[in-house]
Queue: 4 jobs
Job 1
Amino acid sequence: MKTVVSGIRPTGHLHLGNYYGALQNFVRMQHDAKCYFFIADYHSLTTHPDPVHLHENVTNALAEYLAAGLDPQTATIYIQSDVPQVAELSLLLSMHAYIGELERTASFKEKIRKHPENINAGLLCYPVLMASDILIHRADFVPVGKDQEQHLEMTRKFARRFNTIYGVEYFPESMPYNFGRELTKVPGLDGSGKMGKSEGNGIYLADTDEIIRKKVMKAVTDQGPTEPNQPMAEPIANIFAIMKIVSAPETYGHFLDEYNTCRIRYGDMKKQLAEDIIKVVSPIRERIAQIKSRETYLGEVVAHGAQKARESADETMRCVREIMGIKRF
Ligand code: TRP
């Protein structure tokens, strides 16, 4: 069976884009591969050192994962900091990571540009820590979006370098896993691009019905078509794309027809869209709330995940120490 690793930084709520994009695929994948899904709390410290909210953010991410259908009995679901072997591997791999290549990483350069006041070594070593997350379980595949591909390339580089330096074939070359056609891309509500974390562009799984209605009604539209079958501007195409994902085919067909015959009233369409999004989100939101209220259960899930993750991590570290010549007296 192939091994899959995926991490998420607990820096905000999951949105509908995460749900259709990754989570639903994870839910399917957990039965076909040995899956490790973890919450990357160490990584979040590179940009969000926030002792007041960290635990709550981790809890939210965990509850949202579980509410979306990830099964802690099937997959290994854990918190990164519960597996300190990851930090140990990161330290060891950093001995063979060069400052130059770390400085040239696109995500690092972007962070420097955006936050010149906080260029910390954790950020510089972000790719090493991420490589450790992946290599600690010797993953075959990592489902990642475009923005993480360079990090994954670096993971392979570190793995190959380790193998070469020590003359072993120990670490695999972890490959990006692309869901391909199965990957549903959810656009944002602000007129361009995909749904992300930026303000006003996304619907969160934890959003109330009222918030969903408000956000959808504020979605960017235009003056409406002036001739039949007019090509759609991006904001309109985006609203239709979301409707296609969440609404019944007849509903989608109805509004498409209205558009093509220039009768569309975006207000009506958005009202319908909001209700259809609510049908998807409200049961998930309720499960999130229910899961979050069961503290003992969450504790058990996390302890069970940590135990399974540590078993795999211990085995890797035993081999890595031996390969590197770190011997016990
Ligand atoms: N860097 C990833 C992101 O920002 C999160 C992450 C950390 C991750 N470690 C990982 C993803 C290991 C996959 C595998 O989205």
Job 2
Amino acid sequence: MIKVLRALVLPVAAACAIAASAQNPIKVGEFASLTGKEAAFGQSSHKGTLLAIEELNATGGALGRPFELITEDNQSKQGESATIAKKLISRDKIVALLGEVASGRSLEAAPIAQNARIPMISPSSTNPKVTEMGSYVFRVCFIDPLQGRLLAKFARSTLKAQRVALLTSVSSPYSVGLAKYFKEPFVEGGGEIIIEQKYSENDKDFKAQLTAIKPTKPDAVFVPGYYTEAALICKQARDLGIDVPIFGGDGWEAPQLIEIGGTAVEGTYYTTHYSPESTSAAVQKFVKDFRAKFAGETPDAMSALGYDSAMVLADAIKRAGTTDGPKVRDALAATKNYSGITGSITIDRQRNATKSAVVVTVKDGKFKFVETIAP
Ligand code: PHE
């Protein structure tokens, strides 16, 4: 009798356990610019993150539980991300927060995550201040002092530029930071910033700044901004007869750079985090899986970093053996040689990752890999 009972009870108990785990997913919050001015960033990053979560769930999730990704759109607007982070933490009870691409918006959410002791991983915000917000804030990408140094090296050795004009978006912490981190090593290496001009996010007309730049006859123009303004700047610069190389950082990475800029962005350069043209087996598998899921679309750097951010989080949760904030934080801080799509990820004492950068150019209306620069 007892035996029969047991036989009956066990499958029921097992079924209950499975049902309970499905009802008890590991909730991960994501905040992203899915619409608005930097929609390309949020969309790309989100797709990569989603692919990672699906792959994780297909292989059993973590701690015997599936992951549930709860995504909120900040519409690329300033002032939305802190509210969203609060909502995800108090309403949805997320155990970790993924986001954002743009440094300015990561900076808004970071103090909320820190105060709640919820680990936050920015996939691709490169401004150093982001992780300085606190011990719970991480990133899986390189930071702008490195990107700026590599850009300075690129300008001097590849572009052979001695005199550079600088055009910075003063309303973007990313742009202000990258301008500074480019300038220091560039000048130290013997280069000269002959003129500095400013603009703000959402500006459309750059003729005044470009008219001031033109008579200074720079060897190249550095535009550390986001793709919408960068594309318009290239267009208006070419219209004004400025025909020297124009270059930028990872903020340029979006198909819209070419869509908006057209032939004016031909021959421009920017640094970014990865290239889908890499022959590494891991990258090629990622590109294939991504294309299969998203109608043939090729994943860009934000997608690859979004994917890596979710995978690094899952890896830390597995090692921590719990979703408890402080323990996951410690496991994240101990991340070493994690083999990501964007390279090997080791979290340093400042909660950043030191990685190589990739230089991309626009040729015949397409992005083309130029070189990898090691840190
Ligand atoms: N690094 C940029 C920032 O911090 C965002 C970005 C990352 C843009 C990767 C494109 C590609 O704001």
Job 3
Amino acid sequence: MKRVLSGIQPSGQLHLGNYFGMMSRMIHYQEENDLFAFIVNYHALTSIQNREILRENTFSAACDFLALGLDPEKSTFWIQGDVPQVTELTWLLSNVVNVGLLQRSTSYKDKIAQGVAPNMGLFSYPILMAADILLFGSEKVPVGKDQKQHLEMAQDMATRFNNTFGDVFVVPEPDIDKETQLVPGIDGQKMSKSYGNTIPVFCNEKTLKKKVMSIVTDSTPIDEPKSTDSPIFQIYSLFLDKKEKKELTNRFKTPGLKYGDVKKEIFNRIWTHFEPFRNKRNYLTNHSDYVKNILKEGAQKASAVGDDYLSRAREAMGLNY
Ligand code: ADP
Ligand code: TRP
């Protein structure tokens, strides 16, 4: 039984990239692993500086995770800011991480290029993420490809700490799935909240239809075979098993396929796939006390594990006298 941990920022509407890249795999892992899942509201402060929005997004992200199948009986589920020990560990790790490593962060460089203010929170984002992972002895971290460099930094910090102060931390392994590591958005770029190109998991029928209908396609004439190396094929494939994917490949290779028909099928597939989850989510959003109670209990469980690793790190560094 492995400790599997991952988190998601409450920075906007959950989309298919988040779901297939991380969340559905986490939910699957909870059956045979010790799953730790959390909503990273400290990290979200790097992009959201509005009290109401952060509060609403945080609660909403918690409802998403629970609605999609995270089972609090099997897993530990909490809000990052309810276990503030992680900020102390961030400081401890700040003393083993090289500034050059942080300066090479592609995610930091991208954000700055997008015009985000280069504050210290944004710069030290990877240290807080490493603390998230190391505080709980995580062995495996399911994420999408965009988080690979952050995971390498966490490995670097764990190794440097252990080499300097003695073995305290588990060196985590990223868990990136080839099939779902980079879900394309409706414009063909990586699907991301910050690019405005997402297909949300939970939205109304009209919005979903509009989004799916606007997936980019090429101008191959109807009577020619179509490319399977395209966002429309890749997005549809997320919902298909092996046999269905083969059938879709054949349809793409056979002249006559109309993109408009395929889009209608994709819409129906997505809408029905999430139907039961939508109902559960409606229930949860109307029962906030129930949700908050789960999160409170999760924070207590996470705190107990975190306290143990933190006190060992403090001891190893000579902070206890
Ligand atoms: P976003 O880029 O939309 O802000 P987050 O940074 O909140 O997404 O990502 C949450 C999780 O979802 C991470 O594990 C991330 O790697 C994964 N993820 C995000 N976008 C994609 C994508 N397009 N394909 C696969 N995984 C993704
Ligand atoms: N940086 C991750 C993202 O944007 C979120 C995150 C924060 C995370 N702490 C984590 C993911 C720890 C895995 C483990 O998606």
Job 4
Amino acid sequence: MNTYQHFIKNEWVEPDSGQYFDALDPFSGETWAKLPQGNAIDVDRAATAAAVAMEGPWSKMSATDRGMLLYRLGALIESNAQKLAEVESRDNGKLLSEVLGQVRYAAKYFYYYGGLADKIQGAVIPNDKPKVFNYTRYEPVGVVATITPWNSSLLLTAWKVAPALCAGNTIVAKPSEHTSVSMFELAKLFVEAGFPPGVFNVITGFGKDVGEPLVAHPAVSVVAFTGGDEGGRRVAVQAAQHFKRCTLELGGKSPNIVFDDADLTNAANGVVTGIFSAGGQTCMAGSRLLLQESIHDEFVERLLTICKDAKIGNPAEPGVQVGPVATKPQFDKVVSYIDIAKSEGANCVLGGKTRSGNGYGAGQFVEPTIFTGVNNSMRIAQEEVFGPILSVLKFKDEDDAVRIGNDIRFGLAAGVWTKSLHRAMYMSEKLRAGTVWINNYRSTSFTTPFGGFKDSGLGREGGVEAVKEFLEVKSVWVSTDLQMPDPFIRKY
Ligand code: NAD
């Protein structure tokens, strides 16, 4: 069993506490690695190292060379994808095949932002002042803290780290206490790629012990956080106290809306992908299915046909379609929502049970579950479960779908299934969500901004938009006048 150490200045550093905590395999329930338990002293070491690195060889490197380093890291992630995916799947219980795809895709973020590094341009701004030349330049903000959840550790870290490094910043990464091993394996690749010491640092531990001191640390300029809204709120409050910027990618309860004119075969597959891939443990899960009244019964039948024989089991085994819930507290939460839905009067038409015994390891499994008869004021319609639970609601027409779709505090994403171009455009305009998918669900890319409206967060990840979160813009005024005007009178 591996015992890991914090990663600071390209070195493995014992935790100040001398304590280690368990990395648990959600399938077997066994401890499979030991992780350093961080505290404020470890955070200070890492943040200071990252601040010092902002003044070192990293800052003197040309943007082109910086981009080349990112590119090299991407290539190493790709060639080590199997190993990285195995440790991440072992930590979070997601299907190995899915995690492998995610890790390979994470490499592309480093390619994209590597290419972008020397294309960040300021502007020459025509202005109204005589004989003064004005231009803008973009500069790195400094040290960026990345704080990530357990569901997709490497990919969500790549979403933050690649644009932050592209912009010339340095990083202290704090992965979820439930899924930290892959971050240390990634750190090894930073060394192999040739990043200078201090550019990427990793401290593991709990939100209170590591996350909070990291957000508060004076050397940290931006916090890039993905997680639940409770943690997100605390990060935002704390960041505000220190006038720090933060990006927050929080939860969702996204509506997946199927109209009667849709290709129902595609829509049914899209709805299943939306909720049951990754066992519903994704922020963008399409966990509220809105069905036009006339197709309700037929569509639910289609879902049952697709899902009733889903293969549940060991996520490392080929052919398995649903893995375990990633953590025991999350398992308990998902199970509690099944009880909540039943007590609210929703009809359980699929699943609703846990699985244990032979082939189910420690028994942290919840069957893909569908509730019909849900109305939008029920808790099962309003609250994020983060598990394989689908709530089905009915709507009458476009405006009814918009009303129900938007009647929620979240605004991360929405899906719309229709053959009508007019309807698709109307819905994409009216839905209050950071992403709207028309006749598909879950597409995301390094090229494209992703983020939430309302309680789903602040800021964007992906595309050129993401780099702006990690840059300061400076206006430079250069006088071309040989003589200063009267110094006592300011001219406008
Ligand atoms: P979480 O908020 O409990 O933890 C996320 C991270 O924040 C962890 O590393 C944790 O240690 C840290 N943390 C917790 N409290 C903190 C604090 N006060 N200060 C600083 N750091 C703190 O979330 P989770 O349970 O690990 O993940 C599930 C949640 O993440 C869900 O709500 C889900 O919707 C959300 N999520 C959002 C996205 C997105 O892109 N919008 C993607 C994946 C997950």
